[in-house]
Amino acid sequence: MDRIQRLREKIIDIVKKAGRGHLGTSLSSLEALVAVRDIMRPGDLFLSSKGHDAVAQYVVLSEAGILDESQLYTFRTEDGLPGHPTIEVPGIEANTGSLGMGLSKALGFALGQDRTVYVLLGDGEMMEGQNWEAVLAIAKVPVNNIVALIDCNHFSQDGPAALTPRNLDRLFSSVGWNTTIINNGNNYGAIRSALDGTQSLDGPWAIMLNTTKGKGLENEGTAESHFGFPDVVYPAHPLYSAFGDSVDRVMELDKDVVLVGADTLRDLQCYDLRIKYPSRVFDFGIAEQNAVSFASARALMGQKPIVATYACFLRRAFEQIYNQVTEGTQVVYVGSMAGPLSPSGPGISHQSLDDLDYMSALMPALQFRAQDKEEIGGALNSMLASGSPYYLRLIHE
């Protein structure tokens, strides 16, 4: 069996046994992961910034003899391999999965070192502002021993990615990076040839890989390949279903209510509201700071924004939240997937244990569990009627 196909089938088998996991980006980035491991010299370092490709990373590390193969089928189990990689796993150099950090960490690992640092990113992830801070910093220092590969599979969690391979190529090259686009980013030979080319010319390098999300699945090339299997129904969390219904009701009754998301509206059962209320639902992708500051301006214009995303990602926008509160306006913030997560979940990168502390320092906060789903609607109505900022915490049990 072809080497790549054998690894692809192992990835699918591991996720099938675990019952959950992100297949889309693991399968789109597999050839890149293999090619990088094949070209790395002793002392070189690899980071994957996006973290959703965890299973592909584990399989490639196992093939390289860095991770014991017996560990692969402990994925998303108690004391097993986590849903997003952490440094406790052999071969993982930094915690990833909280998006946008990889390039900055690559700079820290590369500066003053006689080695090449390879970093894999996603095109959806490139909406996160920290990446562009790092792109500029790497060009300014300058650092010539970083090779960034961007897995352009054209989708983030909620839908199409905002940046195409050509967009990304122009952005990187405009500030001095060497760039190339690989039209078939699922071709091992093409990737390996491009990586060989980076060794003959000082970097930094950005290689855009035009890939297929969920490569090899029935629903490959779609946003639906992001998580799980095409033939498996993953029931919505009951609390999130109740929340989605409640948002629909308040938006129907009050035309001043607007919903602002950050690439998690599918999980919160609000994604289809963009069709029903096309001018009042905004999903800014993986860009939490932008989402909050946009909402603060809409509040200053007299609207009633609801900003909803995972509780852990509200941390990224805490300064923007503070700024909004000091303006004396009303925004209702919703933090989902709050509290401890089970071993079958995405891992510590998506876990939020401290959000109630920092949010309640600025505004009243209410928290709900699955058994409280009938109360969500009334609570949301009361929050919006108060005229004050509020935090609605949804505990993921």
What features would you describe in this structure?
By secondary structure, the chain is α/β, with parallel strands linked by helices. The protein is 37% helix and 15% strand. It is globular, with a radius of gyration of 21 Å.
Instruction: Compute the separation of the termini in Å.
Output: 42 Å
Rg for CA atoms = 21 Å
CATH class identity of the largest domain: Alpha Beta
Number of helices: 15
Question: What number of structural domains do the residues give?
Answer: 2
Low-confidence stretches: none
The H/E string reads HHHEHHEHEHEHEHEHEHEHHEHEHE
Largest sheet: 6 strands, parallel
Q: How many strands? A: 11
Biggest sheet: strands side by side, in what order?
A: 7-6-8-9-11-10
Percentage of residues in DSSP E strands: 15-25%
Structural class: alpha/beta
Arithmetic mean pLDDT: 91
By oligomeric state, this entry counts as: single chain
Name the helicity range.
25-40%
Shape: globular
CATH architecture annotation of the largest domain: 3-Layer(aba) Sandwich
